From TrEMBL:
Keywords, ordered alphabetically: Amino-acid transport, ATP-binding, Cell membrane, Membrane, Nucleotide-binding, Transport
Domain ABC transporter: 2-233
Family: Belongs to the ABC transporter superfamily.
Species assigned in the record: Hydrogenophaga aromaticivorans
Name this polypeptide is given: ABC transporter ATP-binding protein
Length: 233
């Protein structure tokens, strides 16, 4: 599905990614972990056309994404929920969700407004509220729900549980786990390691702009020496 081939990137003259190679196939749930500044968010941004590459390629279904506008990348079936959630403050919950809705490809059963409100009932309760009147947790539910309504083949999440109350964190983790087996691929970055290890089945550890370890979630979670060295936990 999506493949990063030896990508490098820089902010101005400052290199931030150095030869990153990753792959996520259909139904793969991949988590990226690492200290702040390791290059995780930049890696995500490179997948959706928000970070120009100095070298390497990003492929989706074998097609290079270089030079494509972000809306073209979205139409290919990639949904991105950024760290700041990206909700439109002046729109109501229902307006935001309705505008995002797109039927699934090939007539497949997919995400509908009713289904999103079923997994995030709080959004139904707040349907007439403007997005800027929602709590942080409600805004995150809205951002994820809006992304799901595009019926993506790949869902990319940057810090989906950052700063949220434990009850909301568990709710979001549960929704993300429920996507397994749907055929959708998911890539998640979160400083809350519990979220990443509970959601992802494959983990890549990043340090100083490169991938230093990758493997099954259970294997890396049990490697305390690796976690202590690269994450200080």
């Amino acid at each position: 599905m999506i493949e990063l081939q030896n990508i490098s990137a820089a902010y101005g003259v400052t290199p931030v990614l150095h030869g990153v190679s990753l792959r996520a196939d259909a139904s793969t749930f991949l988590g990226l972990i690492g200290r702040n500044g390791a290059g995780k968010t930049t890696t995500l941004r490179s997948m959706v056309g928000l970070m120009p590459l100095a070298a390497g390629r990003v492929l989706f279904d074998g097609q290079p994404l270089a030079g494509r506008a972000t809306h073209e990348i979205a139409r290919l079936g990639i949904a991105y929920v950024p760290e700041n959630r990206g909700v439109f403050p002046s729109l109501t919950v229902m307006e935001s969700l309705t505008l995002a809705a797109r039927p699934p490809a090939n007539g497949a059963t997919g995400w509908t407004l009713e289904r999103v409100l079923d997994v995030f009932p709080r959004l139904g309760e707040r349907r007439r509220n403007r997005s800027d009147a929602l709590s942080g947790g409600e805004q995150q539910m809205l951002a994820i729900g809006r992304a799901l309504l595009t019926n993506p083949r790949l869902l990319i999440l940057d810090e989906p549980t950052e700063g949220l109350a434990p009850l909301i964190v568990r709710e979001i983790q549960s929704v993300l786990r429920s996507l397994r087996g749907s055929g959708m691929a998911l890539i998640v970055v979160d400083q809350n390691l519990d979220t990443v290890f509970n959601v992802a089945d494959e983990i890549a550890v990043m340090s100083r702009g490169t991938v230093v370890a990758q493997g099954p979630s259970a294997t890396l979670r049990a490697d305390q020496a690796l976690l202590n060295h690269y994450l200080g936990v």
